[in-house]
Design goal:
This protein is an alpha/beta fold. It has 3 domains: 168 residues, NAD(P)-binding Rossmann-like Domain (Rossmann fold, 3-Layer(aba) Sandwich), CATH 3.40.50; 162 residues, Dihydrodipicolinate Reductase, domain 2 (2-Layer Sandwich), CATH 3.30.360; 83 residues, Alpha-Beta Plaits, CATH 3.30.70.260. The chain is 36% helix and 24% strand. Helix 3 links the parallel strand 2 and strand 3.
Amino acid sequence: MKPVKVGLLGLGTVGGGTATVLKRNAEEIARRAGRGIEIDFIATLEPERAVELGVKDIRLTQDANEVVNDPNIDIIVELIGGYSPAKELVLQAIENGKHVVTANKALIAIHGDEIFAKAQEKGVVVAFEAAVAGGIPIIKALREGLAANSVEWLAGIINGTGNFILSEMREKGRDFDDVLAEAQALGYAEADPTFDVEGIDAAHKLSILSSIAFGVPLQFDKTYTEGISKITQEDVAYAEELGYRIKHLGVARRTATGIEQRVHPTLIPKGRLIANVNGVMNAVLVKGDAVGATLYYGAGAGDEATASAVIADIIDVTRTLTTDPENRVPHLAFQPSELADTPIVGMDSVETAFYLRLSAKNEAGVLAEVTRILGDENISIEAFIQKESKQAGENVTIILLTHRVNEGDMNKALAQIEALSVIQGDVMRIRVEELS
């Protein structure tokens, strides 16, 4: 049987890893796929990169449209990233009847519904395992391995940069800005780190996982997103003192009123496995009604780790080249006609426990006034720490850990607390999840 011809768009970190692993493991991959898989055409703005990688006898171009429109190419692998021209190239590939593999989480999160509809119309596959959590096969696990389950919730550390920063802050007592600068120097964070530290990257990924888990359309725009840039070394230390670790989590949960879809810093009991995922590693915890809790852990980025997922998709597509399109695994796990219109609930309706850090004047009755306000909003306190001031006139720090409460009620309480003359500045709040 003749080899499957692959057209590669982009020869950066992941593109280079894909070319390297496909070449190195060609024989093993062919045994798994049932036929050979060859990169036949590469679009790259840096042709010298192909020389560095030792990629020989492969056609090169700087115009990605040449690859997409080449009649000899069976599978287009899009590793350019971003929204445009990636979207236009993917849609053109589908229009040409070509299968697509992509690692582009932003593209899938924002334009996935349109892309999948076009793929369904043309009878081709769009595979995107590498778009979430790098080399961890979480999409395949959710879409196929857990297909018998009604997923109750999932929670994931799905951005390695944020996890590296929080890990360094906890382990070495460093400040956020200091660790961020190192992350940028190491290549973990971009010069503009907004997507990573403000949660946008994680929100792209969470919207994909939520859609697959619960059988709803992709809804990135309804994902609550909060970053880690306001987390201080103090917060990390206080959380540890209370028996928790701070992680930047993506959480999706099925509730009676809809689906929670949120990304934010979260306190997790430090005995939980996911609380001990450190550095740039990723992990996703999924709770199914039949299987219980399952954990998926591994490298969330990197050239060959992500290439592992890209090539697994290429192998899957190769296996389905002769399959009736109606009998393939659906893009979002559920048949397109069966996606539900279950609403994404607003954050005011979400219920979690909270960690609160307040800076207050060193006066009698401050704690009593704060607890009165919380009590009026039906918020009970589980634990508190008060750090005495070291000298007269210095503010005191108060740490409160609450029981679970409706977010809307907490918002009302915090507005009242911050209005008190004895409270200095904004109250720092971090949500708490037991994940039990």
